Amino acid sequence: MYSTMQKLTPVVQKYGGTSVGSVDRIKHVAKRVASQYRDGWTHMAIVVSAMTGETNRLVALVKEVNPRAPAKAYDMAVASGEQVSVALMAAALAAEGVQAEPFLSHQLGIVTDSFHSKARIRSIDSQKIIDCWDRGVIPVVAGFQGVTESMEITTLGRGGSDTSAVALAIAVGAGFCEINTDVDGVFSCDPRVVPEAQLIEDMDFEVALEMASLGSKVLHPRCVELGAKFQMPIVVRNTFTPDDHRRTRVMNLASLTNLEAPSVSGVTLDRDVAKITLIGLPYDTSIVSGLFSAIAEVGVNVDIIVHNLPEPGGKTMHLGFTTSRGESDQAVKAAKSFWVKSKMQSQLDITVDNSVAKVSVVGVGMRSHAGVAATTFSALQRAGIDIRMISTSEIKISCVVDQGLADAACKALHSAFITG
Ligand code: ADP
Ligand code: ASP
Ligand code: MG
Q1: Chain-centre distance of CA 413, in angstroms?
Q2: Which end of the chain is less congested by CB atoms within 10 angstroms, N or C?
Q3: Domain ranges, residue 104
Q4: Which atom of ligand 1 is nearest to the CA of 269?
C-alpha cells in the first residue's frame, strides 16, 4: 500500500494490545514509526489500545467493586488503559528523536453518542492532527474512548480501537488505515483454533463485515462498517514482521463477481453466546411481538430466533433466541416484566444456557453456488456435532453448537470448505 501512495498522503496506523503489551514492544513500534517518519512519511497519526490484558483487568476491577456499576463510572475506569499507552508511546517516540503529542479523546474532540460501553462516534475534530503535522509532530491518539457533548467519557465496545483508527483515517482523509496486530492479517479462520487457516490477501468489505460481526476478533465490526461506508481501505498486518511482508487488504472488490468468488471465504467462531428458551407460551403473535419489544426497549441485541409452533391440536409454542452473555440477564428481566405487565395466568418458564457457541461459514459466492447448507450440515454431522439452532443470510450460515465442540466444528467446516 505504501508503494502506491505519495509520501505526504496521511496514513493512520493502529497498534493493538499485544503490539504495545510491554516496554520492549512499545520501543519496537516507536522504532518502526520513527524509521517511516524519517523515510518521508511525515503525515502519520498513531492510534493505540491499552496494553494487552489491561482492559480485562480494569473490567474485573469495576465488577469486583460493583457488578452493576453505573455506566459512566464503568467507562471512565475501563478507558484509562489507553491513557497509559498513549503517554508511553509518545515518550518512546521522543526517545527515538521524533516529536510526538499524546491525545486523549476529549483533547482531540472524538465526540460520541451517550450509549456508554457501546458508544458510536459522531464526529472527530481533525484540526489538532493537522496542526501537529504542520509542526512536524506525530499525533498519538487513545483508541477505544470518546467523549459526549457534555464531556462524559464513553467507550466504543470491546475491540473498539480499530473503529477509532478507521474513523480518524476518514476524518483526516487518509489514503488507508493500517491495523497492526499479532497475526499477518485476516485468516480463513482464527489461526489459534485452526492452525492450517489461510491468509486472505484481498477481501471485500462485505465479507470482512460479516466475518467481523460473526465473531472473528481481528477487526471490530464497526470499523469495517465505517470503512465500507466511506470507502476507506483497511490494511491488516503483523506489527512484528518486515514492511514488505504479506498482509490483508480490505477494500471494495466489487469487480469480483459472486460467480468467481469462493462459496466460503471464512469460518468464524463466536463464544460470547447465550441461548434463552421460553417454554409453553400461549400461541399468540402479540406475545412474540410484546416480548421482543420489551427486550429491544432495554437495548439488548437479539441474534438467532427459533420459533416452534404448537403440535397439531396443541396450544402452546416454544421460543428460543440468542444474545451476548453479558446481555442475557437483562433480556430475561425484560421478558419477566413483560409477563407480569401482561397479567399472564401461568408462570413464565424461561432458561438461559451459557454453554453454547456460534460457528458460521461466510462467503459472497454462496449467492451463486448451491449446496453450501448441505455441505455445512453434513460436515458437522460427520464430526458428531449436534446443531442446536440455525440461521442463514445470503452470504452466511450460522449454527449454534455446544461450546465444548465449537473448535471441532470450526475444524470440520474449514476442512470441508477451505482446505478440502
Ligand atoms: P489486537 O490486540 O491487535 O487488537 P485482537 O486480539 O483484537 O488483537 O485480534 C487479533 C486476534 O484475533 C488474533 O490473535 C487471532 O487469534 C484472532 N482472530 C480471530 N479470528 C481471526 C481471523 N479470522 N483471522 C485472524 N485472526 C483472527
Ligand atoms: N482496549 C480495548 C479492549 O481491550 C479496546 C481495543 O483493544 O481495541 O477491548
Ligand atoms: Mg482488537
Answers
A1: 22
A2: C
A3: 4-182
A4: 20
Distance 50 CA to ligand 1 centre (A): 15
pLDDT band at 134 (very low <50, low <70, confident <90, very high): very high
The 10 Å Cβ neighbour count of residue 159 is 21
Tally of domains within the chain: 1
In the chain, the percentage of residues whose pLDDT exceeds 70 is 98
C-alpha 261 – ligand 1 centre gap (Å)? 24
In terms of DSSP H, where are the helices of 182-312?
A: 205-213, 221-230, 285-297
Ligand 2 site, CB within 6 A: 16-17, 49-50, 55, 81, 143-144, 158-161
Residue 28 within any structural domain of the chain: yes
Ligand 2, residue 17: give the atom nearest the CA: 7
- Residue in 42, 165, 17, 49 with CA at minimum distance from that of residue 99: 42
The residue whose C-alpha atom lies closest to atom 4 belonging to ligand 2 is 55
What CATH code is carried by the domain that includes residue 34?
A: 3.40.1160.10
The pick from 51, 190, 193 for probing ligand 1's pocket by mutation, whose C-beta has the most ligand atoms within 8 angstroms, reads: 190
Is 251 inside any structural domain?
no
Near ion ligand 3, which residues have CB within 5 Å?
16, 159
In a domain, 70, yes or no: yes
Q: Given strand 248-251, what is the order of strands in its sheet?
A: 100-103, 138-142, 44-48, 11-15, 176-181, 234-238, 248-251, 202-204
Ligand 1 atom closest to residue 19's alpha carbon, by position in its atom list: 3
Which uninterrupted H or E stretch holds 417?
helix 406-417
- Sequence-ordered list of residues with C-beta below 8 angstroms from that of 4, at least 6 positions apart, any chain: none
pLDDT tens for residues 169-209? 999 999 999 999 999 999 999 999 999 999 999 999 999 99
216-271: pLDDT as tens digits: 999 999 999 999 999 999 999 999 998 888 999 999 886 555 666 778 999 999 99
Q: Rounded distance, CA 110 to CA 125, Å? A: 7
* Structural contact between residues 189 and 410, judged by C-beta atoms closer than 8 angstroms: yes
Index of the ligand 2 atom closest to the CA of residue 50? 1
244 inside domain: no
pLDDT tens digits, residue range 356-388? Answer: 999 999 999 888 888 999 999 999 999 999 999
- Residues 10-60: tens digit of each pLDDT: 999 999 999 999 999 999 999 999 999 999 999 999 999 999 999 999 999
